[in-house]
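Hi team,

As requested, here is the filled-out complex form for the iron/sulfur cluster run. I kept the field names the same as last time so the parser does not choke. Let me know if anything looks off before we queue the next batch.

— J.
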Amino acid sequence: MSSDLHDHSTLHERRHVLPVDEEELVACVSCGLCLPHCPTYRVTGLESRSPRGRITAMRAVELEGAPLDAAFVDTMETCIQCRGCESACPSGVPFGHLMEGTRAALHQQPRAGRPRPWHQRAGEWFAYVVLLPRHGLLIALTWLVLVGQRLHLVPRRFGIPKLSPRSLRRPLEADADPDVYLFPGCVMDAWQRDVHRDALRVMRATGARPGLPGAGGDCCGALHVHAGRVAEARKLARKVMASIPGDAPIVVDSAGCGAAMKDYGRLVGTPEAGAFAARVRDFSEWVAEQTAAGAPLPLRDTGRDIVVQDPCHLRHVQHCEAGVRRVLAPAYRLHDTADDGLCCGAGGAYSVFEPALSGEVRDRKVAALRAAAHDATGRDRKGGLVVVSANPGCSMHLAAAGLDVKHPAELLAAALDTTRPERQEREEEEQSRA
Ligand code: SF4
Ligand code: SF4
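And here is what came back:
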């Protein structure tokens, strides 16, 4: 590893191959303090699978004339984009921006280094361009998956939750004259709609009147940004913004979607997008705010043990993982893992394109979650271990490894104390409004 990587005098003219900020590119001082926080480095021990190695490779391409070859593509595509390195970096290197710019360049130059086979490119085009932005089509395909599940044709390792015809048939219900919105998104609304139902129930229990986006607000573009498909993500962001006018807060119960929507100001680059992004709240963050503002949830103490998994996009990007603990603490005994929030290996479509590495990263996470349960309860919880995760991608990835994973909204809804007077008052109010 060269010790003069941050010395500008050793660098050549920029080639403008990677759309990244030069100051951000040269900000890394190669200290290596981020390495233990990088899941792909922890698993492989390879410098080329570390944040420092990835930044070095970006500089070599952008400033030293290195080619966009197969090794470069591998180095970049094996990054989960968890941004654990960003949280750990004492120099404040915005690794997420650097990686997003690099992935955008690789998407623009699909023949660079490691061209994907035609069927994979066709599959990606169908998923990103045709399926995700068209919610009706996604729901139709979900019915086919449901039939496949009933015929035992969909392996459990795919992590798709058990789909329910009752849930798919019933659309979510919005309140009239909303003072807050819930953003249901694309895949989560198709595969985990009951989580949204629980989120709406909890929001109403605080006294709020939740609404839903209008036409066009189907997909936030988070998966597109992850894959470097920035122009498509921008188009989707504009549609989402148009579907939720006004200035009421927008609650997002998927950590990945919430992180993307909080970054619309940078993605779209207009003051309107910045103002929209400022309205976005993670579900638990919003519930915690209501509690602090004097609208606490009527919860009963369930006495149940729950191990907390912090989704990277909640902890390292939104920086609001404390909200999950704050809102669940009155009802559950919460336990943390000792791995300092290391990624679980999901990361957008990472588990599809890098299944081996993703699986190894997940094995470590599962061991950390089980150890946390064991340390807290003194029992080996192979079965009966309940994990809370605020991101559907993480939740499906961990469920595919056999864990029972719940969303904070599910746990809160299950702990709502319907016998408490304030709850009864609110329900009466809701009934009189209806
Ligand atoms: S984003 Fe995550 S996987 Fe990628 S370099 Fe940083 S810590 Fe490693
Ligand atoms: S901690 Fe920051 S400055 Fe140090 S090697 Fe990692 S990215 Fe570079």
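Two things worth flagging: Residues 205 and 297 are 6 Å apart (CA to CA). Residues 28-34, 51-52, 85, 89, 91, 93 surround iron/sulfur cluster (ligand 2) (CB under 6 Å).

Thanks,
J.
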